[in-house]
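yo

u said u wanted the structure for the complex thing, so here. seqs first:
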Amino acid sequence: GQSLEQPSEVTAVEGAIVQINCTYQTSGFYGLSWYQQHDGGAPTFLSYNALDGLEETGRFSSFLSRSDSYGYLLLQELQMKDSASYFCAGLYSGAGSYQLTFGKGTKLSVIP
Amino acid sequence: EAQVTQNPRYLITVTGKKLTVTCSQNMNHEYMSWYRQDPGLGLRQIYYSMNVEVTDKGDVPEGYKVSRKEKRNFPLILESPSPNQTSLYFCASSLLEAPQETQYFGPGTRLLVL
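structre next:
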């Protein structure tokens, strides 16, 4: 199957900005999503990029560059509650079906 | 309230004893899938279904079965569970025309196979 690569851990200070990168395999690639998961909880959808460029949703933004096979999630004005794991997920199409493949996740720790 | 429900939430079983984890959604979603989550490995797709009676293997289908007889239900079946299937399992559903933008996850099922 396809694979997506992202850093395993990131630490940032409350109030700061952090960027979580994700690189992906291009064969059959359709779009890139980001999910947030707090310990013990279910993943929740944050954003989706089908086209190149920046998508902004409040303090969170997501970027996609198809030419570089790369995307990132940008979190601004970090809050303690943003401490969680963040997953990028690629939608891949082929043979009339869609398959979602997740990265292994980035554990974000926000410190005072 | 739009939701995906899974049952049971927690399950301890023994090797070889067949079990079923149920998944149901109330959003009329066509696309449903099962994932397992293990430390350091992220979420890996087990099976997915694009509609009733249409199922496909994901990245880690070995040892699992699914069925999609009704649009709202997508049970995961372990015919002969083994300890390496101890994991956290999530069911998810979404609209077929926008699977990445509308995906909802269930609360998860923690399975321990002894």
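The two ends of chain B are 36 Å apart (CA to CA). Chain B has no helices and eleven strands.
cya
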